[in-house]
């Protein structure tokens, strides 16, 4: 008699005898069921989470989850990649695979948790469409890609009607972060959080022992916060590039010298991942012994999240000038051939060399970088505050600073100070009004101005240092020249204006003596 039949009637297959022991009979029947189920392709729900997308982020996140004791079921559109992954990177782990979404879903414990790490856009919608018929009420779909927050809002709403809990989570830290601890920014259906919290807070980076992951807010909040994070990343990168440009052109420093300076900066208030890698990049030599960085074509690429942040800032009327300039700086860099031609014709100052004290100017640049960075983060949080108002999100700003404190590309010591500022006063109007940052800008102000003025004199572009300073001066101005703009608008388009002494009451003036008294309500200029 075969083992299955023996088990089914309670016969010990080794002895052929009827088993009278109750417990043993029970074990035999359970064994029978297990063999029966596997022979009939009834699959056991063994996995804590399913993960779709076996490119760099997906594979590393799966391995990270496995390290933390979670059983992951892997799936990918190109199914051969599942087998390849199981036979190589995932060999010897508890990771299981699936050759179809149906198989993956059948291997998941309930409520089922499915995370996607696929190309943002149509691929996400396509997987959602295929998953929904396979899932039950209360199951969870998580999108860990760089999706636009507007898409995440739409998906949250649509899936809510279908009883599925949808989460859009920012994932930052690149390949290494995904493998050993990313910064995670989940938002969406709040009912999902208790079911994913253990996994998310288990695998994320830790800063001073605290997880760099917490619930961000409703619908698109997670992806919005990730978008602003990426915008700030654009700003930080451009600021470092401006410091590099000044040291290289104004001071004539070599990459090795600049690397040493950045290594020093990384020991103080600028301590951050991006300064650290910039120091490493500057000292990196090509096979011929020459610095590799100087051989790289100066045309920056971009995937869009910086641009989305700037668009969002324009949409909601928040002056996020530094991120905007950093996106435009990449656009200008991309016109490389045009610039090469223009450089042959357009003249600047006779010399780009700084004639003052080199060490003092290096310190000025450092202070300009620090003050500009403070302005950039202040602008980023202004945008988050406005978006929270518009979308009715309850954002925990100190928590967001902590999420960015470790694991992600903009991780830095500085973010700890931002968390402290929000802990002290969660309702602070603007970060630069916090005592610590206010004082820090005061300390840097003179050298910041000197750096920008020198850059202008020498003809070295520093769009982000400059715009940060212009923002600072604008923000601290009780009176700006916008009164003239209002007068101009009213002059040519009867747009009306308010008087200082009577705010809220809009009036129109017939400036030319031949205009009418009717004001405009529709024309915008
Ligand atoms: P990619 O962004 O390169 O995406 C590769 C994955 O998307 C593969 O699984 C691929 O399947 C799948 N895919 C594509 Br491409 N088109 C598809 C379609 N039309 N339908 C279904 N699946 C499709 O991978 P990644 O760099 O690991 O990034 C994953 C997500 O995480 C992206 O949204 C990315 O923006 C985000 N992210 C990336 C990083 C990073 O450092 N790379 C950091 C943070 C966030 P296939 O194998 O069959 O082609």
Strand order, biggest sheet?
3-2-1-4-5-6-7-10
The tally of beta strands, per DSSP, is: 12
In terms of quaternary structure, what is this?
Answer: single chain
Uncertain regions: pLDDT < 50 for 5+ in a row?
1-10, 23-40
> Number of helix segments?
21
**Strand-residue fraction?**
5-15%
**Helical proportion?**
40-55%
What is the terminal-to-terminal distance? 89 Å
Bound molecules: nicotinamide 8-bromo-adenine dinucleotide phosphate
Shape: globular
Overall average residue pLDDT: 92
Could you tell me the radius of gyration in angstroms? Answer: 29 Å
Main sheet overview: 8 strands, mixed
The chain-level structural class is alpha/beta
Which descriptors apply to this entry?
alpha/beta; 21 helices; 12 strands
Explain what the structure shows.
With 525 residues, this protein is α/β, with parallel strands linked by helices. The protein contains 21 helices and 12 strands. The strands form 3 sheets. It has an 8-stranded mixed β-sheet, with helices on both faces. Strand 8 and strand 9 (210-211) form a beta hairpin. Helix 10 (221-250) packs across helix 14. The longest helix has 34 residues, at 358-391. It starts with a helix and ends in an 18-residue tail after the last strand. Bound molecules: nicotinamide 8-bromo-adenine dinucleotide phosphate. Nicotinamide 8-bromo-adenine dinucleotide phosphate (NBP) is lined by residues 53-58, 76-78, 81, 117-120, 122-123, 126, 145-146, 171-172, 174.
């Amino acid at each position: 008699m075969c083992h299955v039949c023996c088990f089914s009637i309670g016969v010990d297959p080794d002895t052929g005898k009827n088993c009278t022991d109750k417990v043993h009979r029970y074990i035999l029947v359970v064994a029978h069921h297990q063999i029966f189920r596997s022979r009939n392709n009834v699959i056991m729900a063994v996995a804590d989470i399913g993960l779709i997308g076996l490119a760099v982020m997906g594979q590393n996140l799966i391995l990270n989850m496995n390290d933390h004791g979670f059983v992951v079921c892997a799936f990918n559109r190109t199914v051969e990649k599942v087998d390849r992954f199981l036979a190589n990177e995932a060999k010897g782990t508890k990771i299981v695979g699936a050759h179809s979404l149906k198989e993956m879903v059948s291997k998941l414990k309930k409520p089922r948790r499915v995370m996607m790490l696929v190309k943002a856009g149509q691929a996400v919608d396509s997987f959602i469409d295929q998953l929904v018929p396979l899932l039950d009420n209360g199951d969870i779909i998580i999108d860990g890609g760089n999706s636009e927050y507007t898409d995440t809002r739409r998906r949250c709403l649509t899936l809510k009607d279908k009883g599925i809990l949808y989460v859009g989570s920012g994932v930052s830290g690149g390949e290494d972060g995904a493998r050993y601890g990313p910064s995670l920014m989940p938002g969406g259906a709040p009912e999902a959080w208790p079911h994913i919290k253990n996994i998310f807070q288990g695998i994320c980076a830790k800063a001073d022992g605290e997880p760099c992951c917490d619930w961000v807010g409703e619908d698109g909040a997670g992806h919005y916060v990730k978008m602003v994070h990426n915008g700030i990343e654009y700003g930080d990168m451009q600021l470092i590039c401006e410091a590099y440009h000044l040291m290289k052109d104004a001071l004539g420093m070599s990459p090795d010298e600049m690397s040493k300076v950045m290594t020093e900066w990384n020991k103080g208030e600028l301590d951050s991942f991006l300064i650290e890698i910039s120091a490493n990049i500057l000292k990196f030599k090509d096979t011929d012994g020459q610095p590799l960085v100087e051989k790289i074509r100066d045309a920056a690429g971009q995937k869009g999240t910086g641009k989305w942040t700037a668009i969002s800032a324009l949409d909601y009327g928040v002056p996020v000038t530094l991120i905007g300039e950093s996106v435009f700086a990449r656009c200008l860099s991309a016109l490389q051939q045009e610039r090469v031609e223009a450089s042959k014709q357009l003249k600047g100052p006779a010399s780009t060399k700084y004639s003052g004290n080199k060490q003092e100017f290096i310190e000025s640049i450092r202070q300009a970088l620090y003050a500009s960075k403070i302005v950039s983060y202040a602008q980023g949080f202004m945008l988050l505050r406005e978006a929270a108002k518009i979308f009715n999100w309850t954002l925990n700003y100190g928590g967001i600073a902590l999420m960015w404190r470790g694991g992600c590309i903009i991780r830095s010591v500085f973010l700890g100070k931002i968390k402290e500022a929000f802990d002290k006063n969660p309702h602070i109007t603007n970060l630069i009004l916090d005592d610590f940052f206010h004082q820090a800008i005061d300390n840097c102000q003179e050298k910041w101005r000197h750096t920008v003025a020198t850059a202008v004199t020498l003809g070295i572009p520093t769009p982000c240092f400059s715009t940060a300073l212009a923002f600072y001066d604008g923000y601290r101005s009780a009176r700006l020249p916008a009164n003239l703009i209002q007068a101009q608008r009213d002059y040519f388009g009867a747009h009306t204006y308010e008087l200082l002494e009577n705010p809220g009451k809009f009036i129109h003036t017939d400036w030319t003596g031949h205009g009418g008294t009717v004001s405009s309500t529709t024309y915008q200029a």
